[in-house]
Amino acid sequence: MNCRLTFLPVGNADSIILCANDNLTILIDIGNAGLLNKWLQQQQIKAIERIYISHAHGDHCPSLVNLVQFIKSWLKQGKIKEICLPYNMFLKAKQNLLNRRNQISPDKALERIETALNQLDDWDKKNIVNFLPMAKGSKENYGEYLKIFVLHPRQLFIESHLAQTNTKLNELSLVLKVSYGDFTALLLADLEGDGLRECLEICPSEELKANIVKIPHHGAYPRNGEDLQSLLETIDPELAILSVGSTNNYGHVMPQLFSLLLNLKTDNSKKLKDFLCTEVTRTCTYSNQEIAAMNRSGLKEKKLCAGEITILANISGEWNIRTETIHNNIIAQLDYPACQGKLELI
Asked: pLDDT tens digit string along 85-141?
């Protein structure tokens, strides 16, 4: 018996699928609804137990209207039991609708938003799809071995944060711990800033330990990089996965992030043996001098590195990895492959 954790190559975004117990499917983020839907159809999956959406940024969650379209399309071919919406997504959309309605005459955009809000409410009322809140302490058991814990954020942290700002949603990223027997994966979404510091401060060290970690924010490097270093040292994973995009215009993957991972990989006191990227980025393709002339622009087109990454784990804690590409062949073509320690460090 095993569980399967799959990271789709969706660019600078997240789409993660957890399959276990033969017929259980859980989604974490919808960074590319079209690619995700195609994958689910190819796998002949008809029922989704739960969808966790880590936060309300477009690389993790479609717009409200597009999310409703995704759900509606899926319900024609299968079922969705539960969805954990991002904090205040429904409330904020409702408030924006009311404010705009008071200021201007209704237009097609307002009609689509109102229809989407009504559709969500209707599904919830009729128990077709249930919408659930999530905060630290939430825990779900799926059978004897599979458990999913929410490690961040606390409810009071959420309310305090939202009282001060409606931006910096990455700091509210849902941090999920997936446990399957003795195997553990920690999914950090886009955690950064105060959220990163909070998670490090309030989570006991043993709670953070994991075999696999999904590196936050697609290869960005936060201003409080020392907190990210401390968090990764505490997690002490065997493998780190980066969901990154070749064509991103953010300068990802940042060399500082790769440098941190390389230091952990070469530290004999740490367990990290490898790190993998879903797509090739400029950091492994060009020299520092070439990158400096590019500003923040990425590659001209998408190029898979590991591509789709699948972890197969059993309850004993043993796991193995399967990549879409022949990864060694891909990195052999790169001038500065970070995972081989050949990137130019700043």
From this structure: 998 888 888 888 888 777 666 678 888 989 999 999 999 999 999 999 999 999 999
Which of 217, 212, 244 has the alpha carbon at shortest distance from 9? 244
114: burial class by Cβ within 10 Å (0-12, 13-18, 19+)?
middle
Q: What is the pLDDT of residue 110?
A: 85
The pairing of strands 239-242 and 47-52 is unpaired
- pTM (two decimals): 0.95
Element holding 16 (H helix, E strand): strand 16-20
Question: Alpha-carbon distance 281 to 50, whole Å?
Answer: 32
Phi/psi region, residue 168 (left: phi>0; alpha: psi -120 to 50; beta: rest), is: left
- Is 65 exposed, middle or buried (CB count within 10 Å of its CB: 0-12, 13-18, 19+)? middle
Q: How confident is the model at residue 198 (pLDDT cuts 50, 70, 90)?
A: very high
Contact predicate 131/125, CB 8 Å: no
199: pLDDT strictly greater than 70: yes
Q: How high is the pLDDT of residue 295?
A: 92
What is the rounded CA–CA span in Å between residue 209 and residue 232? 9
By CB atoms closer than 10 A (0-12, 13-18, 19+), residue 263 is middle
Cβ contact 331:306 at 8 Å:
no
